[in-house]
Amino acid sequence: MPLLMGQRGGRQETSKKLEMAQRETMKAEAKVQNNEEEAEKLKAKVQTLASVFGVADLKNGVISNISSLSNSITIHVTSLDRITVPLYAEQQKKNVPYQMLLLLEEMQCGKQKAVYPIALAYCLSAYNVKLFVQHDAAQLFLTLWNLMKRQMKKPELVEELNGLYTICIQEHLACQKCSFEEKKNSSMLTLPLPLLDSNCRTLKTLKDCLQYFFHPEELTDHNMCFCDQCGRKTPFRQSMKLIHLPQTLTIHLKRFCFEKAAHIHKLSHYLPFPQDLDFNAVLTESQCQADDNEKAGWQYDLFAVIAHSGSISCGHYCAYIRSLTERKWYCFNDSEVCQVSWDDVKCTYGHSNLHW
């Protein structure tokens, strides 16, 4: 169950409309260098799309709801408007960033009640993404991410996309016999938060999940590590420190549990999460490795929730998205979109009867 949160900001938001319009113009010029008639048509389309962006006043880009894979995934596409468009139709059909951009344009400018992302679905199937099966939302997000990065020809766009989503942490591994310590920086796209502690006890709130994720862990018995300095396996202390949080933070609630004989079952217990989150109030100083300027951006507003109903093997995804202009919540349920209340969104916390 992923939660998407956007950083609070001021001046950065006000320039989004102009920045988006400029990017669209750049894309138009790149796509139609050799055909003036097509250039005029595309520029007109770009102006229309840019005007829609201006009216929407989206803070963190546009969220696309993809439901053709028995799934609802939300993804930002702020970097898609400057991609290098493939020259030939067959290449375009297999280009994930281009198909995502076409879907976005159809969603924003189309007149029909619902958009059917069939072209994108078949594009993904060319890369062994199975259709007509239930995908884990976070796993499908990572699959889309890797395909998009691989097919973006401009390194600066890949870097920009990384900047929007990438979380940076520092891993610490310390030998408890000789105090030898290793440090390694790593990055991730989502914060995969467990809902159970090491003793299989239920974590009650999102704050509890975050604190447990960054809580040090003792590696003993069969979990001991080899220490180069001691020359043998010894008990280690493993911990993580937060270095950087991106503009768009994706939190993945791991609502599944492994039992004996590799059996997996879904965790549907109640776990509330807030509409705003300040990491400075959640993590301790020892769990952070960042300066004050970095920590100043660690305040987030919730703007999307992807919720699953059903069991571990079958079910249905819905996306709850908050309008950043109206400040109202909407439920995207395949071809149906309706306004909902914050109380409705709370049902996604977990409900034994609904199996959210």
Description of the structure:
This protein is an alpha+beta fold and 356 residues long. The chain has a single domain, classed as Cysteine proteinases (Cathepsin B, Chain A). Helix content is 31%, strand content 26%. It has 11 helices and 16 strands. Strands 1, 4, 9, 12, 13, 14, 15 and 16 form an 8-stranded mixed beta sheet that branches. Strand 6 and strand 7 form a beta hairpin. Helix 2 packs antiparallel against helix 3. The longest helix has 21 residues. 29% of the residues are buried. About 15% of the residues have low confidence.
Number of strands: 16
Count of spatially separate domains: 1
Q: In one word, what is the shape?
A: globular
- Distance N to C terminus: 9 Å
Determine the strand fraction and express it as a percent band: 25-35%
CATH topology: Cathepsin B, Chain A
Kindly report the name of the CATH homologous superfamily. Answer: Cysteine proteinases
Number of helical segments with 4 or more residues: 11
Q: Report the C-alpha radius of gyration, rounded.
A: 22 Å
Keywords: Coiled coil
Coiled coil: 11-52
Organism: Amazona collaria (yellow-billed parrot)
Domain USP: 56-356
